[in-house]
Amino acid sequence: MIYNPLGANPLAGNPLKTRADVEKALLDLFNPLLPFFSEGGARVRLSGTAAHFDRIAADVEGFARPLWGVTPFAAGGGAFDHWELYRQGLANGMDPEHPEYWGTVHQTDQRMVEMAAIGFTLKMVPHLVWEPLDQRSKDNIAAYLTHIRKYDFADNNWKFFRILVDLGLEEVGVEFDRSLTEKYLEELDGFYLGDGWYRDGNVRRIDHYIPFAMHFYGLIYARLAQGDDERVKRYRERAELFARDIRHWFDEDGGALAFGRSLTYRFACGGIWGALAFADLEALPWGEIKGHFMRHLRWWARLPIADRDGVLSIGFGYPNLLMSENYNSAGSPYWALKAFLPLALPEDHPFWQAEETPAVTSADPVPLKHPGMVMSHTRGNVVALASGQQNYQMRFGAEKYAKFVYSSRYAFSVESDERAYHSAAFDGMIGLSDDGRHYRVRESNEAALIAGDRLHARWKPWSDVTVETWLIPANPWHIRIHRIETPRPLHATEGGFAIARADLNTDTYEDDEGRGFARSPSDVSVILDLSPGGKRAGRALRALPNTNLIVAKTIVPQLRGDVPAGTTVLACAVLALPAGAEAEAALASPPALPDLAELEALFAREGVEVSAIQVAERF
User: Fold this and answer.
1) Phi/psi of residue 594, each to 5°?
2) Is there a contact between 555 and 526 (Cβ–Cβ < 8 Å)?
3) What's the predicted TM-score (pTM) here?
4) Helix axes 135-148, 110-124, angle to 10 degrees
5) What burial class does residue 443 get, using C-beta atoms within 10 Å of its C-beta: 0-12 exposed, 13-18 middle, 19+ buried?
6) Considering the domain 367-618 in this protein, what is its CATH number?
7) What confidence category does residue 392 fall into, taking pLDDT thresholds of 50, 70 and 90?
8) Which of 261, 426, 433, 399 is nearest to 335 (CA)?
9) Within the chain, which residue ranges are assigned CATH 2.70.98?
10) What is the CB neighbour count within 10 angstroms for residue 284?
11) CATH number of 19-353
């Protein structure tokens, strides 16, 4: 028996340096799915876990989502041996008289999402999935797709799904109501904020759906659409602007900022780099684009992201249902295959010919007004100070959107018990309790401002308690200041970054007054109290298992203390770095507490609302 600490990660051992390596990665990811195709080929059921939609729709996810990878692979000349299986599945799934029929849609439905990959496939490789079919099968597919596109798609990135279906129908000569296409293209333009940034629909949400959905689909449209030159030009110009900003969501090792929902889609986060290549858009030098793309795949090759059979799990760095969304079925993670879009390009394309160049990073903070973030790069990590976005629709929305800081190397944690205040991780956030059992954290803001590279937010954990928070970069540290106004006593717990716990007690924990500190063989994490009115107690919490997204067992340094009735100011400096000389030097030089009056004056003079807050006020 061979011991494999990565489980059955299909990417493990692949150097991921060349186009051939990427082709192999795609096939290695797809092949474990073959035993799970139904007899008629129309459904792929990977486990007994459920999503909020029906089981058949989940099976359609398992069938359709791999097409995001295998379709460009085939379009680029790759030899995929299972097109007969997909032709059979398409014909049976859309045949009302077949036992594996996918079901008729009469309202907004998950099937609408999965039809996008099918539309894309019809557009890209009709000779493989359409032309060999008999006329009855073609008629059934045409009827199914023209029927499903009539209904309202969700008011967000879903609107692109009708557009992609329409590209496919147009390619195979099926007539449809083009006014519906134009309607959604215009509504999608309404989500544009400026400077290359969109919002994901009519919500306060700017997350990875902007690179791996809004721009991803927009660049596919820009490459494949006919006769819409003005819109194509806009999509390309917006993506070029966006690339200059989104590169700061990726660290020098290829890790992407862990932030927001749908992180179980994993390397879909790198889809933006492949989409730029697909659209032949050199928004950054080709070597930089390729470097981001390849490093991102290599980053994922190091983690145990698959089950024993090689099937991608629900989770992020490891199998983890706790962090999932209610719409994640076992087939959902295969949106990760969107990363393989550049396989549609020939070997001699400049993207594939370019030599990888390092990520462009800066020791100086990089403010991003639209998502309300200030980005800082440290070794093997990117840190985002975050103004906080509202997302009540998502499970663990506060943890995914409203923490004060997010990271690529250390990710973030979700809480596993809302009635276990003293066991909560609170990494990157402050938790407040009035009974020692339940707790409140920031979930939304009344206001959020950015002034240069500093952030300010006002939020209310209870209707009668107001917190103002200022976030200041001091790379590799950052500083948090909270002014809490409460009519009754509270208790506060504030957490630094969660780092991986080592086995055999080889970690070092220090619970000191005014400092929470943790050192493992790989990392150092500290939260240092700067509060002007006295020191909070420090501790290193052995967090509950399976709460962090990247590693299953973590240590979180924390500061804890009472908050009396009235007005209290709490402040801290926070740091996490890989273990070594750089970390020791940083620990020896913590930053000083800024003057709060000067900060207030700065925001009064220069503060502007961040788009993540502002856009929702229009609706």
Assistant:
1) -65, 160
2) no
3) 0.96
4) 130
5) middle
6) 2.70.98
7) confident
8) 261
9) 367-618
10) 19
11) 1.50.10.10
